[in-house]
Amino acid sequence: xxxxxxxxxxxxxxxxxxxxxxxxxxxxxxxxxxxxxxxxxxxxxxxxxxxxxxxxxxxxxxxxxxxxxxxxxxxxxxxxxxxxxxxxxxxxxxxxxxxxxxxxxxxxxxxxxxxxxxxxxxxxxxxxxxxxxxxxxxxxxxxxxxxxxxxxxxxxxxxxxxxxxxxxxxxxxxxxxxxxxxxxxxxxxxxxxxxxxxxxxxxxxxxxxxxxxxxxxxxxxxxxxxxxxxxxxxxxxxxxxxxxxxxxxxxxxxxxxxxxxxxxxxxxxxxxxxxxxxxxxxxxxxxxxxxxxxxxxxxxxxxxxxxxxxxxxxxxxxxxxxxxxxxxxxxxxxxxxxxxxxxxxxxxxxxxxxxxxxxxxxxxxxxxxxxxxxxxxxxxxxxxxxxxxxxxxxxxxxxxxxxxxxxxxxxxxxxxxxxxxxxxxxxxxxxxxxxxxxxxxxxxxxxxxxxxxxxxxxxxxxxxxxxxxxxxxxxxxxxxxxxxxxxxxxxxxxxxxxxxxxxxxxxxxxxxxxxxxxxxxxxxxxxxxxxxxxxxxxxxxxxxxxxxxxxxxxxxx
Length: 557
Ligand code: C2E
Ligand code: CA
Ligand code: CA
Fold this sequence. Notes:
By secondary structure, the protein is α/β, with parallel strands linked by helices. It contains 21 helices and 21 strands.
């Protein structure tokens, strides 16, 4: 047998090659050295929407003129010039098609394999949308916003810009009253309105919940003015109601603005500033905007520091009590008021006005208040043994949070039992805010303590909002007129009238009346003339540490 003839072999090889090229899933295009189309498989015909017999032999740029000079053109040149394969992905506009292309140079010219990857691209785009856009509103989400701010900050030629942090006022109410789907609808409408109210180059993002952020870039030297104008514009845009499924709903925003320039801090810092400014806008009455200013930051840092210091102070027992003598108007000592002091290791003696409010907000007032009560009751118990002090009353301030604890009564009873202090000499000072809520249970609690002999005073009277109608339902035995009225009495026209009215009220409700903050003998003469029973103030004595109180008592005796 003889081997087959060469021409046969070549024909066979060509037929094999064609069969292979026709059967692979890629589209194949073979170009000659002068870019003429030498071969194309069936997949290429379908993908490029041409008929093989029409195009074979013609130059590729004639058949696909739109590709001239484009990325295809450059890539093919590169493959030919470097004699290296080139791989790239391109969107082929005439057919709205994403193709993945591999071009292999050879001695005959260039073989190009390509395939339609539109579907994969669509999936990638969808994944991108899900990762970077908010599903409900379609706005860029927090992640994309952070990226854009980051880019803006990194842009060396950047002109500086502004971040507007927008929080809807009372958004919760629509969720609560009309359901979450209506709340969602409102957020969508708000998103549209925000988009309509800013420049097309600004980014409106949903930061989360009812929080939105507008990023304004390239503002230049007029950044502050532009940001202010936009903030005003946004407030204006919210004046019109939102039509939520046929029902008009009014919503207002609180806006915090932080500017950034090239020297700026990081993304987190800028957003934090805008957020802080937003809280300021809320504090200023909502439906408002506020610029970040460094003092805000200082206040927040100082507050955080104070909170941390307070926690440490509780552990290290840095508190002490001072006692301010209280007098009958005739000058006789009636008792003392225990006042908390904080011996701060760096700052020295810190007055309660600087820490009680924070202690209340953080509930640290609970352990602190308990300690004050114990300390005061221990002194009260020690006084019992001495005839000169055994009749003195001890007044202790009780915070609203403390009083409203379910076990408050038990705590007081426990401290009284532990220390052996006489309940009848303990006086608890409540402020009007205690009486604002839960009047019934408040009355019950007070009565239980009253039953064992504990007395109650209403502190800072006249500064709160207590309703006079239920004063008589509570077992109070004393009104303490706030010192602002005593100071106003001799200066302002109606000052004296207020003091007179409180005294009359106290008489009618069978309570004694104490005037706070008496500093001068004129004031004393006045409160005595008006019928006050007791007074307290620097005229009689300042609050004293215990050893000075002992000296005061000895002098008084
Ligand atoms: P407060 O209960 O009205 O206590 C009276 C405050 O007036 C005390 O300030 C006292 O030093 C001050 N004061 C008394 N007489 C005069 C005067 O003639 N002139 C002036 N200018 N001031 C006078 P302090 O000790 O700084 O206490 C401030 C507030 O802190 C207290 O007001 C009370 O509300 C709160 N506080 C103090 N200790 C405690 C405590 O142990 N527990 C709670 N919950 N609050 C406390
Ligand atoms: Ca008090
Ligand atoms: Ca007071």
